[in-house]
Amino acid sequence: MDQFEHQMIPTNHIELSLYSTGPKSGRPVWLLHGFPECWYSWRHQALALAAQGYHVHIPEMRGYGASSAPDAAEDYDLITLCADIQGAMNHLGHEQVAMIGHDWGAPVAWHLALLEPARVKAVCGMSVPFGGRPRQPAINMMREAYKDRFHYIVYFQQPGLAEAEMAADIPRTLRLMMHGLSGTDGDNSLVQDKPADARWLDDHTDPGTPPAWCTDEAFAVYVKTFEQSGFHGPVNWYRNFERNWQRTESLAGKQIEQPALFLIGDRDPVGALEAYTIKKMPNVVPKVEQRVIADCGHWIQAEKPAEVNGALLPFLATHFPAG
């Protein structure tokens, strides 16, 4: 923790909590976390990148930790989330950056590459691919497909329910989600064979300890993050599929032209759910390199840090060298 500098950045009408490491003269690399993660999930990549001479910036995304967490769901659409990072880059004077995101951070990274083609020189998404703007909001298809059985994203649409369930026992929630989507211990927690009106976590048994890849120190940072912010802001990210679709109309049909890297674990359930998108991704990201990390679940940068760094560092050395 001592290797990271912390500051609060005014941006896009909020305060963004930002952790940084590495030489200040180094080229900037941004690391964007997902749900339910925290900035510290990037520690392995941040220190490796800093050692190579990069200046690494890891925000607590809107709604998380010490960053502002507006109440309204519409304050968490993708264009707004991108504007948070754009404003922070402006504040820091960043003219050229590499943008890397995992889980929900990946769509933000992909869209920043679309919105900022001159500034984002290289982009990497982990776990969540980019397939371009869909023909309709994805939530419409989910609601139709899961009218009679449970799906966590459909459940998340109901204001107040999911965040209250998760906040009732934060350590338990985090343990269940970490184990449930891990490559070594988990099952597919995204879609469960139970009634549509069920709760999400009731029928899961608490494993009692985090997975082996999450140390007690790291787990404490995760818990502190959600004790500070709760889950209302993070779950609001899921309540904007229609608004995201509306606000990205001008990006329809556009390709990500920058050098791009996509990483996913071979045991990540997102891989099966997004198999079609992954297959067609080169059509919309023509310079993408795709890598599958073996024996790895969803929490890719924490589960397999050496393998992730082994793919990420050479990619950046080629397309966004530190010096």
Q: How do the helices and strands line up, and which of them pair or pack?
A:
Blueprint: E1 5-11, E2 14-21, E3 28-32, H1 43-51, E4 55-60, H2 78-92, E5 97-102, H3 105-115, E6 120-126, H4 138-145, E7 149-151, H5 152-156, H6 161-167, H7 170-180, E8 191-195, H8 216-229, H9 232-236, H10 241-247, E9 260-265, H11 269-273, H12 275-284, E10 288-293, H13 300-303, H14 305-319
Parallel strand pairs: 3-4, 3-5, 5-6, 6-9, 9-10
Antiparallel strand pairs: 1-2, 2-4, 7-8
Helix pairs in contact: 1-14, 2-3
Count of runs of 4 or more consecutive helical residues:
14
Distance between the termini: 26 Å
Task: Indicate the low-confidence ranges by residue numbers.
Answer: none
Helix content: 25-40%
Provide mean pLDDT, rounded.
95
Radius of gyration: 18 Å
Query: Main sheet?
Result: 8 strands, mixed
Main sheet: which strands, in order across?
Answer: 1-2-4-3-5-6-9-10
What is the 3D shape? Answer: globular
> What's the order of the H and E elements?
EEEHEHEHEHEHHHEHHHEHHEHH
